[in-house]
Amino acid sequence: MRLRPPLLLVLLAPACYSPDHGGDTAAWPTLGAGPAGDSSSGTTAPGSTSDAPEPTIASTSGWTTDASSTSDPDSTGPDPTDPTTITDSGTTTTGVLPDPSCPRVRVLVPPGEILNVRPQPSTAMAPVGSLASGAIVDVLAIVQGEAIDAVDTWYQVAGNWPEGYVFGAWVECTLDEPSAAGYFLPLECGTTATVTQGNFGPFSHQGTAAYAFDFGLALGTPLVAIEEGTVSHAYGGTMPGDPCYDGGGMECINSANYVTLQHPDGTTSNYAHLSQVSVAVGQYVPRGAVVGLTGSTGWSTGPHAHVARQEGCGQAFCQSIAVQFVDVAPDGIPEGGESVTSQNCP
Prior knowledge:
1 helix; seven-stranded antiparallel sheet; SH3 type barrels; 2% helix; disordered N terminus; mainly beta
C-alpha cells in the first residue's frame, strides 16, 4: 500500500461519500429491495426497472430451437437427433448431445430481467444462478424436461455452478462468441487515470463501499462498462444548476447520478457521481461501451468516478465485493495513488 500524508490526500483527491462512512450505517441512497425470487431489480430508484418473476407459463412466440430441425446427416460429430441418456447427480434425463450448429445460446429474456439457471431441467428447485439478457453461454447438452406451454426443451449450460439448465423458450442458438472473460477498467481503451481512493480507503470506502475505487478524472470523461451487462437501475435527475450537481455534503447523499449494470454471473457494477447518464434501464451494454460521463453529483468533493463491483441484491447500491481488473498488473487491484491505463478495448 502506498502511503500519502493525510493533508495532501484531502487537498488533491476528490472523494465520494456514502451513508456508511465510518462503517456503521446503511448502504448508499435508500432504495427499496425487490421481492425475493426471480426478479433482477428493485423498483424505487428513479428510472429503475420493475420486478417481474419468471412466468409459470412462458410464451413460446418466436421460439425456433428444435434439435431435429438443425441436424445434418452428412455433418461430422454426434447426431443431435440421436437420444442419449445423460446421467447427472443421480438423475437420468433423456436428451441429446450438443448440436454442432448450436454450440452456444444467447439469453432472450426481456431487457432488465434475468433468466434463472436451475439445477435440474425444471422449475421445481431453487435457482443455482442467473443470466442477464443478451448473455452468451456454452451448451453442454440439450435435454427434455418440464414442459411449459408445451415446450419441454432445456439446455444444460456451462457456468459457475455444478450443474445448470435454462428453459429453451428464453434462449436462441448462436455461433457468436461471448465477450472476453474478466473485468476491465471502467475507462475507454488507452485512457490513463490515477486511483484517488482504493479499497478500504480512509475517506468513504468502508462498510458497503469497502471494495470501491475512485478514479480522478476531468468532468465529462466517458465511463465504460467493466463487463457486459444489462442496465438494472439508472438515475440522471441531478442537472446543471441543481444544488448538488457540483458536489456537496451529506445532504446530497441521494442526489448522485448513477448507473447499475447486472452481469451474466449475477453480480452488478455501479458507476456513480455522473454528470450525464448515457444508457437506459433495460438496455444491454457490451463491455467497453459508454454508460455515462464523469461528474461530481451527490456527496462528492470534486469530479471523479466511483466504481464498484457489487453483490446482486436487487437494488442500485449493494454490498461491494472484490474485483480484479484484467488490465491491472500484477494482481489486478490498483492502490490509491497508482496510475492505471485501460485495455478495455471492445
